[in-house]
Write a structure and sequence with these properties.
The protein is an alpha+beta fold. It has one domain. About 10% of the residues lie in helices and about 25% in strands. The chain is built from 2 helices and 6 strands; from the N terminus they run E-E-E-E-E-H-E-H. A 4-stranded antiparallel sheet has the order 3-2-1-6. Strands 4-5 form a two-stranded antiparallel sheet. Strand 1 and strand 2 form a beta hairpin. The relative contact order is 0.20. The C terminus is likely disordered.
């Protein structure tokens, strides 16, 4: 999961009154429809579920391993949170002005 970043989060409450943070992880910048994982964190910031292996299924039909999330969510009897997603940066937001428009052109790095 080291290659993934938080892309959204929401607060969840159990029927017993406990409050938890649910974080959705995905690929940086572009996100991914087939690779979004959910983790539940307690009030101390400790993750309550795992996602190993990260993907389930076979080569043609991979999907994120959210089995741990589903199991813990049921154990805690959590209400499904509304996930708030952070805006995804556009490529121009990520590229610095010195890199913009240079692409793979090697001569762009040479002085005039």
């Amino acid at each position: 999961m080291a290659d993934y970043v938080p892309v959204g989060m929401g607060c969840a409450r159990s029927t017993r009154g406990g409050e938890y943070l649910v974080v959705e992880y995905g690929e940086p910048l572009i996100g991914c429809n087939i690779c979004e994982w959910f983790f539940i964190y307690d009030a101390d910031g400790v993750p309550l579920n795992q996602s190993q292996p990260a993907m389930l299924g076979s080569a043609g039909s991979l999907y994120p391993n959210n089995e741990g999330y589903t199991q813990v969510s049921k154990q805690l009897d959590l209400h499904q949170p509304k996930i708030q997603h952070a805006p995804r940066p556009r490529p121009l937001d990520v590229e610095g002005p010195s890199l913009r428009g240079q692409g793979d052109n090697a001569s762009a790095a040479e002085p005039n």
